[in-house]
């Protein structure tokens, strides 16, 4: 069964790029969101299993959003996709419950590799 | 801003184009800009900086360059909405990547987009603004860094 994916990013072109790349994986894109508040709402409605999460977004940032999504479903897998390249931010995102961190700018193969690793860890874990 | 900090932004912008398109941008010599006459092309993405450093980082580019860049990354929708989005995303990426060098207290805002070259970005006259000229796909753009 295909895993259900939600893409969260305030950039339309990044959402589109992630969608194009990950539609080639065993994933069904069930929702997209342009900020953390919208992501929380769509998460309740569409119940994705996997989320790609930007961090710098209007209304609610990605760290707060991960916290809320994890409170609703601790089993959700989160890949952070962010330009915030410092180690402290990556550690914070992982502490909040993200399983992977991909730094922008990224290529399609970088993203493919990151999501494959995330899904394999889920399978083995 | 010292020379080493300016070099951080030069390297980040080179890496951005190389990584995103496989074709590096030609980066001109960074120079001090006149606060009243900073470059403004068709689309500009502005990131406000707060925390240990204060000011702004902005990327301004011609429509043709952004259009070519979108097509290069596989995006066929080259509407003004996406061109503006890309200007903001480049500024966001360069500013966010700069935290590797400036630390997590280099706080960045979400992008503010300005469309049209007739506008001007106001930076305080007391803070130096450095212009890093770029050329990619035969089109001009600029990265402007103004930090206290």
Automatic annotation (TrEMBL), chain A:
4-aspartylphosphate PTM positions: 54
Domain Response regulatory stretches: 4-119
Keyword Transmembrane helix: no
Superkingdom as given in the UniProt entry: Bacteria
Keywords attached to this entry: Phosphoprotein
SUPFAM superfamilies in alphabetical order: CheY-like
InterPro entries xref list: CheY-like_superfamily, Sig_transdc_resp-reg_receiver, ST_Response_Regulator
The name this protein goes by in its record: Response regulator
Annotated source species: Uliginosibacterium flavum
From TrEMBL, chain B:
CDD domains, alphabetized: CheX
UniProt keyword Oxidoreductase present: no
Gene3D superfamilies: CheC-like
SUPFAM superfamilies listed in its UniProt record: CheC-like
The entry's keywords: Chemotaxis
Highest taxon listed in the record's lineage: Bacteria
Domain Chemotaxis phosphatase CheX-like: 43-134
Protein name (database record): Chemotaxis protein CheX
